[in-house]
What we know:
By secondary structure, the protein is mostly helical. The protein has four helices and no strands. The chain has helices spanning 14-29, 35-97, 103-115, 143-147.
Amino acid sequence: MEQQPEIEQPQPDFTSIAENFGALAEQFARCRNLPAVDQGQNLLQAMAALNNNVMEALNNFNEAIRADLRTEIRAINVRLETKLVALSFLSLPLLHANSAFSSSEANSAARVMNASVTEPDFPLEPLRAVATGEEIPNFPGTVSDITAMPGR
Length: 152
């Protein structure tokens, strides 16, 4: 067999490889500027902002509901107190019609009725003098009248 002459095979150029790796590294570093890569961070920020907006809207909605409920409860209380006062005025003639009804019993009933009054302008049931059974003169007519009294 005849030996063939040895042909020189191409050899790697390490300098070229190093330069190309440097160029590749530079190009890969620029990938962070691509919208497809950066949009992930932008999407996370947008979702966080949306979440904050939704939470704020829910909190505002909850506070509005609470305010509405407080208003409705106050209105119901006013209507109830009006009904209680009207009922107390209806029941007083019956209480006074009973001759056995004493001043202390009348005062006890008046205290119960007056204890349910919470609005400043609702009328109060006057107390009675124990000795005479007559209404105490100048008895305050409303809670506002009591508040306006000197010494309070």
